[in-house]
Queue: 2 jobs
Job 1
Amino acid sequence: MTAPYLARSATPDDASAIARIYNHGLDERTATFETVHRTPEQIAAWFDGIHPIAVVTSGERIVGFAATSAYRARACYAGIAEFSVYVDPACRGQGVGALALRRLEQDARAGGFWKLLSRVFVENAASRRLLAACGFREVGLYRRHGRLDGRWRDVVIVERLIDE
């Protein structure tokens, strides 16, 4: 029997598991323009004391995460964070992404953030459904936002005001 899923704030000790899940997402080419694998040391650098990261566990194993990063350098945007969410392929469709996002939202609110935003590949229907179910709204479309493997990709912009 699989242990229940639990969400918690991540620590730098989680960097190896986060890197494993993130790198799998890079290989799939469905969630990010990034193509270069990250090392655990590079992931550990995400822990800047400002931008929360949440993980979801099944027993002792990390099966998903959601992370925030800086949106813009200007002080007026200090309460806005970009986010991403990744789930181990074996655990997709089981609520892991939603748990990670709910915990991330709690931690972001506690850290003084008022808005989370991201960009999602237009054809990433699973992520778009997850985000809609978690209260994110689609606010626009960036056409030809970047190239991935030589192909232009459009992205949908999503946002959630944390206190709504």
Note: Helices lie at 15-28, 40-44, 96-110, 125-133.
Job 2
Amino acid sequence: MATDPRRFQNSLSFAEALQRSRTWWKPLRLLNAAQEIGMDQACSWMEEFRLGRKRLLDTYLAATYHEKGIRRLVSSCINKGE
């Protein structure tokens, strides 16, 4: 979905794009129940916190973890160049 008016002549508002995403997501739930996890929460957070389109995948991942009860992440970076 194109939400950037500088790049697309008939761009959608973010709210319109999010609504279309919700509409398109519903049939997928029937195909794979696991895909349902997190999407409703992610859309709610996108609206509530006014997150931009570049935050969609991160928000979906966070919502999926949240719905599964995961509240903490541990991360590590190993720099092999040093």
Note: The chain has a mean pLDDT of 78.
